[in-house]
Amino acid sequence: MKMYLNSIIADPERLDRLVEIAQSSLLPMLEGAILYTIPLTLITFVLGLILAVLTALARISKIRILQIIARIYVSAIRGTPLLVQLFIIFYGLPTIGLTIDPFPSAIIGFSLNIGAYASEVIRAAILSIPKGQWEAGYSIGMSYTQAMRRIILPQASRVSVPPLSNTFISLIKDTSLASLILVTEMFRRAQEIAATNYEFLLLYSEAAILYWIICFILSIGQGRLEARLDRYTEK
Amino acid sequence: MISIEGLTKSFDQLEVLKGIDLSVEKGQVVVVIGPSGSGKTTLLRCLNILEAPTSGVVSIGGKTLDFSHRVSNREIAEFRRQTGMVFQSYNLFPHKTALENVMEGPLVVKKEDREAVRKKAEAILAKVGLGYKIDYYPFQLSGGQQQRVGIARALAMEPNVMLFDEPTSALDPELVGEVLKVMKDLAKEGMTMVVVTHEMRFAKEVANEVIFMEDGVVVEKGKPEQIFVAPKEERTKQFLRMIQ
């Protein structure tokens, strides 16, 4: 640490060079964020949530085979590392003739992941809604599907926002793993630039700060969403 | 309007209803009383199949369900439309305003026109004395107001029969009156009602028939003046002594 700082102080040209690198790398990294990191996060989160709701519904359904499929899916995804899953999809599947480009591979891998983790959150949220809400729905003639869609899921979604926000924030950061299957997202850009000038500390720190800023902005969005969903509960 | 024959209900080994026969004429108000655990709430919940009877035949309006064989979910949903239910703990939809609570059934289940439903819902809320609270969420309403929204929600489906499951038991004493008043008005209009309650005053004033249940059977039934003044069965006498 001391040596690093001394080397910068002792050599004004080095400082200039670092500033230069930090500035010139900012644009490619932001480009990586805007073209890949953020779209990957958003698309994956939406697809993952759809998958999660379906999985949660399957797990609480009375149809045994659906329950079993959902359980196996959740168990397999949660029981294996995300990086391994990504490698199977991108590097493994071509072996059986299934070649998928980096970005779609990442979308598939992350969506399957979010689907499994978020399904547990959503399932718990659905089960947390009092039985009386179901009965009230049934008593005005609703079917299971109508009660689920109109009464239970809207309330369950309120309950699941804080834990799902955690999943979302984790996802933003996890997208950096996509760099390992050749998606030129933000962290991959940092790696590429660092490979040419060996300023690892600078570039990876810069990447860290950019992730932090993105997460910060998105967590403001979370606060607003919670406030909106809170309008029908006692303050 | 309602007829029940040989209704039984068991939860695992526990037999809660042991063969109930009952009939209710159109426009009648039947009040079911009895100690807790007597099966009166279960009986009420069997009328709209929130509990599926173990055996027996339940008829409401023109529709009949025979539980000696399997009954499909579709048949049950169809059957339920005959009844409206008011719950002890209101069970309003917390994410919907009073008006939306009342509109939900006609809109989603009957798929009626939104504007027409809105007018109807506003009229019903006005009828239960909440015309000025239609845009409030349940958490902004008192217990008595919530229960009146509950009644309005059930009425919006235009049921043949209204079922009340201890509608005032969760209320502070000073709020009981406003709910009972709405129920009395309904009775006057000729609504067929089955009411499980501990409000003996209501039973005396409004009921056409009082049913006393204990241990899953109907011990005694009759006009309120008979049941309350001259009960025939020893168990009925004991119960009435205990609550007075």
- Compute the CA-based radius of gyration of chain B: 18 Å
- Name the helicity range of chain A: over 70%
Neighbour order of strands in the largest sheet of chain B: 6-7-8-3-9-10
Cα-atom radius of gyration of chain A: 22 Å
Report, as a whole number of angstroms, the end-to-end distance of chain A.
49 Å
Largest sheet of chain B: 6 strands, mixed
For the termini of chain B, the CA-CA separation is 32 Å
Secondary-structure content class of chain A: mainly alpha
How many distinct helices of chain A? 9
Q: Count the strands of chain B?
A: 10
Largest sheet of chain A: none
Order of helices and strands of chain B: EEEHEEHEHHHEHEHEEHH
Give the total of beta strands of chain A: 0
Mean model confidence by pLDDT of chain A: 91
InterPro entries (chain B): AAA+_ATPase, ABC_ATPase_HisP-typ, ABC_transporter-like_ATP-bd, ABC_transporter-like_CS, MetN_ABC_transporter-like, P-loop_NTPase
Membrane topology (chain B): Peripheral membrane protein
Main location (chain B): membrane
GO molecular function (chain B): ABC-type amino acid transporter activity; ATP binding; ATP hydrolysis activity
Gist?
The complex is a heterodimer of chains A (about 240) and B (about 240). Chain A is mainly alpha-helical and about 240 residues long.
